[in-house]
Design goal:
The longest helix is centred in the last third of the chain and has 29 residues, at 624-652. 63% of the residues lie in helices and 1% in strands. α14 runs antiparallel to α15, α20 (407-418) runs antiparallel to α21 and α33 crosses α34. The chain has helices at residues 10-22, 42-46, 62-71, 78-88, 92-102, 111-129, 134-144, 151-157, 162-169, 188-195, 203-219, 223-233, 236-247, 252-264, 276-285, 290-305, 312-331, 341-352, 381-399, 407-418, 422-438, 442-459, 462-474, 484-498, 523-536, 540-551, 557-573, 577-591, 598-601, 604-616, 624-652, 662-672, 677-683, 688-702, 707-716, and strands at residues 175-178, 183-186. β1 and β2 (183-186) form a beta hairpin. The relative contact order is 0.05. The chain is built from 35 helices and two strands. The two termini are 36 Å apart. The chain is an all-alpha fold. The chain has a two-stranded antiparallel sheet with strand order 1-2.
């Protein structure tokens, strides 16, 4: 049935549904249409009897193009294939024209390419441009300025003009609506054609398009595209307002893109937008480019110190500069045994209190796996950081409405935890949670609860461990907590690592290690669980590579000890005692000055067996009392872990169910109700990209290939 999209009569559609329903399975019904038809065939979809072939699959692939040219007896080169695919996107019309032209020409790159473009453009000029209204012409040029053509964004750009949208949707020969992404796909030749018409728009019209597109991207979490469009619109105020919150939890690519935008900005923009200098420094800070950061900070500092002391704008900018200087010094604690960052926060407080506007800076709290960034193993170094943080919190909380409240207690509890002083650790974690909750410092709450989970494992207390996980799950409802889904996945991964259920660890934590600019940054948080997953599954080669790379760069003291202790156990299990004892000695030397023992204890029976062998080794240089202490306490941990796993199986009937997160269960229910991914995102106030991630997780966990299989498996296993 061709041109099925033109059928609108309900009775005709219903008649077709009946034909398809009774059609013999060994035969096929083929509907050819520009858009997915409004037809009810859910039973066939659920049974896996429906195949959707989008038009992009009808484009030539590289292999198909090579075979076609071979049949046409045209000499084939890799460069030729790449150029044709890049220019045509595999569109059959263009490919056919090029093949015919190449038969009578010496090559593609010269006049064949130009002739192809000219002929395609002539076709588009006659087939589309000459037949559409002036309003649609201008509208199409506006669309050619941006990349992602979401149906919602297109409606915004049309200002709700229904007649314009109706005419736009009629251009189905070159513009296709994709129901799965709720977006329009435009043939590349048409995009190229429209690109040549962009001169018909003035600068103001272009900026308006970019502004609308940027706002839509911001709403839907297309972050890099958002920054690109705001820059094109010249809206540096929007960029600088949003950058700090983004970079706290960002990838290296985003940080680099942000830095490039600041470098391209007009020279004097920092004197027009009070948040510009601070945001620019933020970008350098999260790239961990210390020398460049200092040079830029000095430049801005000298520039604004020249202004009158009573100038509120000047004081605000200087306060932002010292805020960034303080945080950079805090991050440098990992590589420098110097803890003076509180002095910068003191100056920040002085300037901000004399500014003409209240600061709204986003605070980069605990962006990595540990609260304390200390890298030195020197006796007392971790406590010196805690003391400086305690002084800093007073300044920062006063300027930023209680920001970082509870952080000092978190760091103190963390040190006690690693020293296995559980009573004091529990006391300080409780204080951190109480203080942080009052000021909505959710990252601090999460970290304290994650340590509480680890304490519960040490005690063999399944009820306490489950409660800590549930309390972290409740933070998923806090929309202000940007990192909530990442950190909850990590907590869930830790929980199942303790229970020795590697199959239940979230999928992304089973992937390759992430690159990270600094050990304290968020990319390395997931790496800690990836390391534990690989240790649990005995996938040792990538784990050892990660640990070896860690030794050659900056590393947080607690994490360095954890990885060295794990490395020792890996080598022992690989029957290499020499390397095992050497790694254990390195771990001991890093840990003993500050009485850190928990990384060894948490390796339970593996560590106990290693130490039992080390005690008998005649050349072991580690004190026997320390070995005896670790062996005894790791054995205690192993005993309680066995109890924890046993209790878990009794309560949760582990091993017989597919473990879905609350958000995954929510999305699954909506999919079974027939909602699209876009509708689910709208219903729960989520971004479409996030719903797509949840959908991918559901496919992985249910081992399904599409939505129909997800629904079928979910019903079969009574998941909904």
């Amino acid at each position: 049935m061709d041109d099925f999209h033109l059928i609108k009569n309900p009775e005709a559609i219903h008649f077709t549904e009946q034909i398809i329903d009774v059609w013999p399975e060994e035969n096929a019904v083929i509907l050819i249409c520009h858009n997915l038809p409004d037809i009810n065939i859910i039973n066939l979809q659920t049974g896996g009897f429906v195949q959707n072939i989008p038009d992009k699959e009808l484009n030539f692939t590289e292999e198909e193009l090579e075979e076609y040219l071979r049949q046409e007896k045209i000499p084939i080169e890799k460069k030729l294939l790449n150029e044709i695919l890049r220019d045509t996107n595999g569109w059959a019309f263009s490919v056919d024209f090029i093949a015919k032209s190449l038969k009578g020409s010496p090559g593609y790159s010269g006049y064949v390419r130009n002739a192809m473009r000219q002929n395609v453009f002539k076709l588009l000029e006659a087939d589309i441009w000459a037949k559409i209204s002036e309003d649609l012409r201008k509208f199409l040029i506006r669309l050619s300025l941006i990349g992602h053509l979401s149906a919602e964004l297109i409606t915004s750009l049309a200002n709700g003009d229904e007649s314009l949208l109706a005419e736009f949707k009629q251009q189905q020969s070159y513009i296709h609506y994709d129901d799965h992404t709720d977006a329009y796909l435009v043939h590349q030749p048409l995009i190229d054609f429209l690109g040549g018409k962009q001169g018909l728009l003035n600068d103001g019209e272009k900026r308006e398009v970019y502004q609308i597109a940027a706002n839509w991207c911001k709403k839907n979490d297309y972050i890099i595209e958002m920054l690109h469009h705001y820059e094109k619109a010249g809206d540096y105020k929007a960029i600088t307002d949003i950058i700090p919150g983004l970079l706290c939890n960002s990838s290296s690519e985003l940080t680099l893109r942000a830095t490039e935008i600041f470098e391209r900005a007009p020279e004097n923009i920092c004197e027009e937008i009070r948040t510009f200098a601070g945001a620019h420094l933020y970008a350098f800070m999260f790239q961990n480019h210390f020398e460049e950061f200092l040079e830029l900070a000095d430049h801005y500092e000298q520039r604004f110190l020249r202004l009158p002391e009573a100038d509120g704008f000047r004081n605000f900018v200087l306060g932002s500069i010292y805020f960034c200087r303080g945080y950079m010094r805090f991050f440098r604690c990992t590589v420098e045994d110097k803890y003076d960052f509180d002095l910068y926060f003191s100056r920040m407080s002085e300037y901000l209190n004399n500014s003409d506007e209240k600061a709204k800076q986003t605070i980069p709290t605990h962006t990595g796996p540990w609260a304390n960034p200390v890298g030195s193993a020197r006796t007392g170094a971790p406590q010196e950081v805690i003391n400086a943080v305690t002084r800093s919190v007073a300044y920062i909380s006063g300027c930023f409405n209680g920001a970082l409240s509870g952080t000092e207690d978190l760091l103190q509890g963390e040190l006690f935890f690693y020293q296995n002083d559980i009573k004091n650790a529990t006391f300080f974690f409780s204080g951190a949670i109480n203080k942080a909750q009052k000021s909505k410092q959710f990252e601090t709450v999460h970290r304290a609860l994650l340590y509480s989970l680890r304490i519960a494992a040490l005690q063999g207390n399944q009820v306490k461990a489950k409660k800590a996980l549930i309390d972290m799950e409740s933070l998923l409802q806090e929309n202000e907590y940007a990192n909530r889904f990442i950190t909850y996945d990590i907590a869930l991964g830790w929980y199942h690592y303790i229970l020795q259920h590697p199959e239940k660890i979230p999928t992304w934590l089973k992937e390759s290690f992430s690159q990270y600019k600094h050990a304290y940054f968020i990319e390395n948080f997931g790496n800690q669980l990836k390391a534990r997953y690989q240790y649990l599954t005995q996938d040792y080669p990538p784990l050892l590579i990660y640990i070896e790379e860690m030794k050659g760069r900056e590393s947080v003291l607690y994490g360095r000890i954890e990885m060295l202790a794990m490395e020792a156990c890996v080598h022992y299990q690989m029957k290499d005692r020499t390397k095992a004892f050497a790694a254990l000695k390195d771990a001991y030397e890093a840990a003993s000055p500050n009485q850190i023992v928990m990384p060894f204890i948490e390796l339970r029976n593996d560590m106990r067996k290693l130490i039992l062998a080390a005690r008998k080794h005649e050349h072991c240089l580690i004190p026997q009392p320390w070995l005896e202490l670790i062996m005894r306490r790791s054995a205690y941990y192993a005993k309680n872990q066995t109890l924890l796993i046993s209790d878990f199986k009794k309560v949760d009937n582990a091993g017989n169910e597919i473990n879905l997160s609350p958000r995954e269960q929510e999305v699954l229910r909506d999919l079974c109700k027939g909602l699209s991914q876009t509708e689910i995102a709208t219903k729960h106030n989520l971004s479409v990209s996030y719903v797509k991630t949840v959908y991918k997780n559901l496919r992985d966990k249910l081992q399904a290939n599409n939505i129909a299989e997800i629904i079928s498996i979910a019903k079969e296993k009574n998941l909904v």
